[in-house]
Fold this protein.
Amino acid sequence: MSYAEAVRLTECLLGLAFLQQSLEHLAGPRDERLLHLPRLLLSAALVAGWQSGVVALLLLGLGLLLLRRFDGPYNGGADRMGLLVLSCLSATHFAPTPLLKEASFGYLAAQLVLSYFMSGWVKVVNPAWRRGEALVEVFAYSAYPVSESLRGWAARPRLLWAMGWAVMLFELAFPLALIHPVSLAVALVTAALFHLANACLFGLNRFLWAWLAAYPALWWCQGRLLP
Amino acid sequence: MLGRLLPALMPSWRFFDAIGPSPRVDYAWVEADATPTTWHEFRPRPARVGVAHMFARLFWNPRVNETLYIVRSAERVVEGDTDFPARELRWRLLLALGRGELVARTASALCFRVRAVYRDDGAFHDEVVYVSAPFATEPAAER
């Protein structure tokens, strides 16, 4: 995938992710509608590829206003990833040299790799995760499971121990996938399925779309570094 | 405002590094200066969510996303930040009242509390960490 194709695909995926988010807020209170209606229109322009650089900058400005409105991100890590992708996209349009443009997009790829590796690292150094207790606690009493019936999973500690280690090993091994396009494709599909499971079990749908928007940067970066 | 952007530009990516106390928000109808007696859980989880519903939520999930925001606000209250997050919880309760989500009115004012649920030495604990003052429920001017 060429640099231009990867940037364009990122714009489309991020625009669709923002469209999905902003549509949800149009059913909300007036102050949220006032911020999300222009965001919706700008996201559609980003998907269409109309004045992408200016549109990305305007979306970044709206992102800052949303951070002020909610005194931080509304949806935690998903909003932060969206802003990261948006910032890197803006830099690809306005950086003064081709090398800096590529470096900006490469930074997004590096952060994507770190997002998985660091998530695995902070878990594996925690004894509660290594013993399988952390996932039991997530299902037993955390606010995340989308239904009471899912709390029953807390009574299956062996399954959750295996799931916890599968997640940690996958996240820690993610950087190794960069050695070949096939391994990277397998890793990205697996990661997308992981986000899909989180969306279904914990209601974290925005994470799925925000992380997908960053995948083209890594796909391009792998080919750029190991042609 | 740029300071708020920095955590997005240089994220720590510490997802679920430790499972801390989990907040619950309850509300009660109360007369001004009285002590609330009957608490109701705000946004209790449904007993079950079907696969088709889970799939649909990939594309349309405003209620759960708002609930996650309420949880984050309550977590901040548990951490001791009772300014903006407490105002936001009060605002979300008034919005829910306007949508008909709350139990029928039995008094003139509402109040809410935040509980922290956690496990320590193998035992579950459920501790009230914040109780708001009663507040009027006249339809608030939309922000």
The mean pLDDT of chain B is 89. The longest helix of chain B spans residues 62-78. The first strand of chain B starts at residue 22 and ends at 30.
